[in-house]
Amino acid sequence: MGEHGQLPGPGGAAGRTVSGTQLSEDAVRVFRWVSDQGSCDARTLGATLGLTEDCAASAVATLTGLLLLRHLPEDSDRLVPVAPDAAIAALVAPKEAGLRRQLAEIDQLRGELALLTPFYAESRRRWQGRPPLTEVTDLKTVVGMITEATMRCRQEVRTCHPGGGRSPTLLEQAFIQDRDMLRRGVRMRTLYQHTARYHLPTQEYARRMTDEGAEIRTMSELFGRMVAFDGETVFIPHQDDLDAAIVIHEPSTVAYLCATFDHTWSLAEPYHPAWTESSARDEVKQAIVRLLAEGMKDEMVARRLGMSLRTCRKHIAEIMEQLGAASRFQAGYLARVQSSAPAPGSA
């Protein structure tokens, strides 16, 4: 092991004591010589062994520190050897006592924590046997369950947020939890609608989150609101109660929803705040035309595309002007006819 890892051998190789003090070859020579003589004069020790004054003093200091040499009370210049077993007992006993105390504390802590194991195991069995779908009607309970799932998440969270931008307060609360997940190594993918690119608080949230490693994309329309944790638990909104949620654990349903998210993600565009020249703007207008052709009213179109009614009507007016349409339904019809007409020169 080399000179820093061996105890002294017959040849006087250096080693290390329990205190970490280096036993030099000179110290070993001094101890052997004093042991042979029974005692020695510290003032003549160096000259007797052919050591410099500094080397002799260093060796004596090491040996007295390790309780292997001691000065006689009646003659402080006289050194006598001490049995290594006695020195070991004096040096090691306090450390062993400390270790015994630490081991006792560890055993006590282990025993106290082990008392909780049956409670956790029982809860785990109940958790694994939970119903595939749970209706939670209390908003605080919903928030608490999502917070707990966020803290427990270890691999990936998928989030789909239809509609426009969210309130700055909700975005700030989400940022703190989402940042903590990202710093634990959790992958985070979020889908917004294209119209969220207009929203300044969402722009700032997206910038901060992408700086932390999150991935954000947008589409003109989304399939619905959901949050999926680790491909095991999905939260979706309640159909009849805005403050309620449905929590899904059933594996096939969770896998289906996550696959739906992944498919939508593959079609979505990476988030960029400035989108005047982006194809996302054209996609929004195409979606408006398609929904008008289906006979939807302005309010429904705005809700489906996550924009305000005023913005929606502004887009509709531009589309009608471009198509020369007298009504919204006619605009949808004309756009559909134009899109189905064969290109010039085609067979």
Instruction: Quickly count the helices.
Output: 13
- Helix percentage range: 40-55%
- The number of distinct β-strands equals 13
Overall form: elongated
InterPro entries: TrmB-like (IPR051797), Tscrpt_reg_LuxR_C (IPR000792)
Protein name: LuxR C-terminal-related transcriptional regulator
Domain HTH luxR-type: 286-335
Pfam family, one: GerE
What do you see in this structure?
An 8-stranded mixed beta sheet has the order 6-12-11-10-7-8-9-13, with helices on both faces. Strands 3-5-4 form a 3-stranded antiparallel beta sheet. The chain contains 13 helices and 13 strands. It is α+β, with helices and mostly antiparallel strands and 347 residues long. The protein folds into 3 domains: 15-82, Arc Repressor Mutant, subunit A (Orthogonal Bundle); 133-269, Endonuclease Chain A (Endonuclease, Chain A), CATH 3.30.870; 279-340, Arc Repressor Mutant, subunit A, CATH 1.10.10. Residues 1-19 and 343-347 have low confidence and may be disordered. The termini are far apart. It is elongated and about 120 Å long. Strand 8 (187-193), helix 8 (200-212) and strand 9 (215-219) form a beta-alpha-beta unit. The longest helix has 31 residues, at 84-114.
What is the fold's blueprint, element by element?
Blueprint: E1 15-16, E2 22-23, H1 25-37, E3 40-41, H2 45-49, H3 53-65, E4 69-72, E5 75-81, H4 84-114, H5 117-128, E6 133-136, H6 139-152, E7 156-161, H7 168-183, E8 187-193, H8 200-212, E9 215-219, E10 226-229, E11 233-237, E12 245-248, H9 251-267, E13 269-270, H10 279-293, H11 298-305, H12 309-323, H13 328-340
Parallel strand pairs: 7-8, 8-9
Antiparallel strand pairs: 1-2, 3-5, 4-5, 6-12, 7-10, 9-13, 10-11, 11-12
Helix pairs in contact: 1-3, 7-8, 10-13, 11-12, 12-13
